[in-house]
């Protein structure tokens, strides 16, 4: 059987082909699944998609009409998939329920340290042989407070690193993680976490209840010199409200690996044509902001685990079995 994989990065392609070698043929495309590209899937029973695929109702109906019966998404998040429509169409949908939490946690810390110690500005200067230190003053994080919103596997990994820095830990989640409390984390309401934290990192899924979790009210409650990091989902942050606060000169630094309108932008070269997203364009201009293109997961270990899980999801579909990765049909 030949499988069609959308949104495959050049680094991923040989890994995917090797993982399916001897089992199935796989056709890897660098284009993302959208309404415009969905007709390419005509005749493919199994389609694999990336995190930025459009799997809304129109795309799902186009896939089903073309003979697709199974969608294997190569990510943990599935807020881009209309699961109700998929179920009505009889489509099987599977994701990757987990992969290396260290990959995302370590990258969140990379962003935090980059904005705290002004690394991007420093490197830009030294490339021009400007070795001044003006404007590069950071601060020690030891002894300060880290607020972790979402203390699952990734949030726990982030908290362990914070603990290693000697930081006080505040946490917010629907349930407490014993491993985090063992590190000395105090669970509080999110209002206190926003008000008291020097560094805030987001590690919660994007759900209707968490859409714009960091809204204008939350941003106003944060310390003027706080650091905000989001390596989870862009929709957790009200970007328009964030830009308004940055225009007022607030926050020591903001590190964003995700953006709420990233679909159609991230993973695409826009260096020649530019972008028409005024909010993102303005956000990137702030000297205390670092934006990366949803790469926190992008390590050999994590990508390998994602691909291995995708291979298993395909095998389960063909064998008629299921695992915790299956979203549709729901249990």
TrEMBL record:
Q: What class of enzyme is it?
A: oxidoreductase
The D-isomer specific 2-hydroxyacid dehydrogenase catalytic domain is annotated at 8-327
EC number in record: 1.1.1.28
Keywords linked to the UniProt accession: NAD, Oxidoreductase
Q: Which GO terms describe its molecular function?
A: D-lactate dehydrogenase (NAD+) activity
SUPFAM superfamilies per the UniProt record, alphabetical = Formate/glycerate dehydrogenase catalytic domain-like (SSF52283), NAD(P)-binding Rossmann-fold domains (SSF51735)
Which Pfam families does the entry mention? 2-Hacid_dh (PF00389), 2-Hacid_dh_C (PF02826)
The domain of life for this entry's organism is Bacteria
Spell out the InterPro entries in the cross-references.
D-isomer_2_OHA_DH_cat_dom (IPR006139), D-isomer_DH_CS (IPR029753), D-isomer_DH_CS1 (IPR029752), D-isomer_DH_NAD-bd (IPR006140), D-LDH-like (IPR058205), NAD(P)-bd_dom_sf (IPR036291)
Identify the residues that the record assigns to the D-isomer specific 2-hydroxyacid dehydrogenase NAD-binding domain, covering every copy.
110-296
Matching PANTHER family: 2-HYDROXYACID DEHYDROGENASE HOMOLOG 1-RELATED
Recorded family membership = Belongs to the D-isomer specific 2-hydroxyacid dehydrogenase family.
Name of the protein this chain belongs to: 2-hydroxyacid dehydrogenase
């Amino acid at each position: 059987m030949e499988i069609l994989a959308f949104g495959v990065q050049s680094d991923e392609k040989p890994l995917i082909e090797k993982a399916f070698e001897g089992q199935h043929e796989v056709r890897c495309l660098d284009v993302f699944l959208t309404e415009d590209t969905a007709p390419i899937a005509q005749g493919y029973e199994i389609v694999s998609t990336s995190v930025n695929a459009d799997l809304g109702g129109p795309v799902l109906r186009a896939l089903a009409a073309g003979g697709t019966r199974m969608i294997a998404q190569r990510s943990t998040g599935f807020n881009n998939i209309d699961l109700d429509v998929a179920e009505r169409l009889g489509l099987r949908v599977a994701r990757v329920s987990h992969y290396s939490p260290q990959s995302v946690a370590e990258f969140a810390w990379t962003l935090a340290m980059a904005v705290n110690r002004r690394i991007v500005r420093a490197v830009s200067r030294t490339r021009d042989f400007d070795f001044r230190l003006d404007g590069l003053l950071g601060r020690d994080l030891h002894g300060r407070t880290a607020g972790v919103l979402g203390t699952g596997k990734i949030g726990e990994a982030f908290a362990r690193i914070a603990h290693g820095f000697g930081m006080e830990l505040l946490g917010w989640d629907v349930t407490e993680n014993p491993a985090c409390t063992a590190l000395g984390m105090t669970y509080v309401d999110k209002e206190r976490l926003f008000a008291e934290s020097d560094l805030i990192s987001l590690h919660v899924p994007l759900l209707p209840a968490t859409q714009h979790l960091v809204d204008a009210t939350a941003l106003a409650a944060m310390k003027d010199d706080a650091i905000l990091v989001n390596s989870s989902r862009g929709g957790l942050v009200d970007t328009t409200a964030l830009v308004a606060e940055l225009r007022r000169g607030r926050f020591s630094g903001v590190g964003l690996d995700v953006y709420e309108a990233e679909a159609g932008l991230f993973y695409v070269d826009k260096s020649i044509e530019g972008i028409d997203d005024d909010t993102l364009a303005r956000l990137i201009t702030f000297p205390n902001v670092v934006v990366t293109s949803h790469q926190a997961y992008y390590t050999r270990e994590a990508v390998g685990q994602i691909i291995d899980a995708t291979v298993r999801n395909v095998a389960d579909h063909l064998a008629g079995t299921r695992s915790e990765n299956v979203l549709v049909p729901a249990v």
